[in-house]
Amino acid sequence: MKLAVILLSLVVYNSTAAYPQISYDFSPYGYLTKYGIPEAERIKEAEEKIHSSERIASGSPAASGQFKYQAGLLSEIIGIPNQRGICGASLVSPNRLLTAAHCWFDGQNQAWRLTVVLGSTLLYSGGTRILTSDVLMHPIWIPLLVRNDIAIIRLPSNVQLSDTIGTVALPVGALSTQSFQGEAAIASGFGLTADGGSISNDQFLSYVSMNILSPLECILAFPLNARSSTLCTQTFGGTSTCRGDSGGPLVVQRDENPVLVGITSFGLAFSCQLGYPAAFVRVTSYLDFINKNL
Q1: Residues with active-site annotation
Q2: Whole-number pLDDT of residue 174
């Protein structure tokens, strides 16, 4: 899967030997036109021709119903007719989803309507499809700095839960204070599967397992943008989130049930397979915002 990670040209020099000095292009600023629309077009063409384009880098294809809470988003953008951007989201109640704020407004482009795709491993066919323009971004979302990159999508009515559509738990109780450092987590999405790669012709929703880094390691990896409210994962063997995965879920397992701990936010552009960390919104940092609007 290509978990969305991308953007604005900023030069950041990492202070650790683990992450050599390179040029970073990772802010969600301008995401919808820079990556969202091109990836959506590639996926559409791939599905139409049974040919493909890109998503979770080196990830595994997901089976129907494996990630019941995973939603695909196709965004219609003001001033850009006949083209749609791509993102992911997580169903947290029958009528609420969590996604990245930059999937709705990226600092340059404003979406005006979303098609929410549930219960399908394909983005353009199958499953349940719901239109909505009711999106609540965090009130202090700052695209240039990637601060508070979270939004709540409100559906017009409750979606019917089934074998392929379900909700994911939030990290409540004792989980609300955990860092999840060192734990294995799973990210899923409809995005790229390789740098310059192509979407497979049999499955379009993919997933990958990654380890969660400590808050300090996260800040050292992204010194300009990571905060205590950022969660980072370490990638191995060329597996990571990539372009088109933005807004999608990162979960850990508790009693064999998934718990949502991250929302795909940013990373290195065109470096999905280079072993650099990927950054997510830390869900526990926004439980007040989420619970007030469920």
Answers
A1: 102, 149, 246
A2: 97
